[in-house]
Specification:
Shape: globular
Number of domains: 2
Number of strands: 0
Order of helices and strands: HHHHHH
Largest sheet: none
Distance between the termini: 38 Å
Radius of gyration: 20 Å
Length: 144
C-alpha cells in the first residue's frame, strides 16, 4: 500500500474516532468492543442549513481545539459556497464574490480557531515571564 493511501486511511480512521462517544471508546480500549469497516461509494452529501443551524455550526467551530478539527467540522457539514458565505456573514468575516469554497473555509477556520491559537501562543509566552524558572520566559519571539 502506498504511503498516500495509508495517510488517507489514517485520516478516515481519525475522523471516525472523533465521532464515537466515551462509552464506545471505553468498550474499544477494554477489548469488549470492535470496529467493523463497511466500504461505500463516496457520495458528497449536501445539506440545507438554516440560519439557526449556521449559528450552531459557528459555536461548534468556536469550540474546535485546532485547525484540523475545524476543517473536519466544515467538511462534515458539506456546505455549499452560498452557505459558507452566509456562515462567514454570521461570524462577521468579510468575504467577496471571488472567494471560492476553499478560500471561504480557510477564512472561517482562521477567524474561529486560528486567531485563538495565535492569541494563546502569545499569551503563553507573556504569562511565562511572570512565572519564576519558566524556560519559555527567556525565549525570544520569532519573526514570521
Amino acid at each position: 500500500m502506498s504511503s498516500s493511501r495509508e495517510r488517507l486511511l489514517a485520516v478516515e480512521i481519525a475522523r471516525f474516532l472523533r465521532t464515537i462517544g466515551d462509552d464506545d471508546l471505553a468498550l474499544l480500549t477494554s477489548g469488549s468492543g470492535r470496529i467493523e469497516v463497511v466500504l461505500r461509494p463516496n457520495t458528497p452529501k449536501r445539506s440545507d442549513v438554516g440560519k439557526a443551524d449556521l449559528a450552531g455550526l459557528a459555536s461548534t467551530l468556536a469550540e474546535a481545539s485546532d485547525r484540523a478539527g475545524a476543517e473536519l467540522i466544515l467538511e462534515d457539514a458539506a456546505l455549499r459556497r452560498d452557505q459558507l458565505q452566509e456562515l462567514a456573514r454570521t461570524l462577521d468575516i468579510p468575504s467577496t464574490n471571488r472567494d471560492n469554497v476553499a478560500r471561504l473555509r480557510d477564512k472561517i477556520i482562521e477567524a474561529t480557531v486560528g486567531y485563538r491559537l495565535r492569541s494563546s501562543a502569545i499569551r503563553g509566552r507573556e504569562a511565562a515571564k511572570d512565572v519564576p524558572n519558566d524556560p519559555r520566559a527567556d525565549e525570544a519571539p520569532t519573526a514570521s
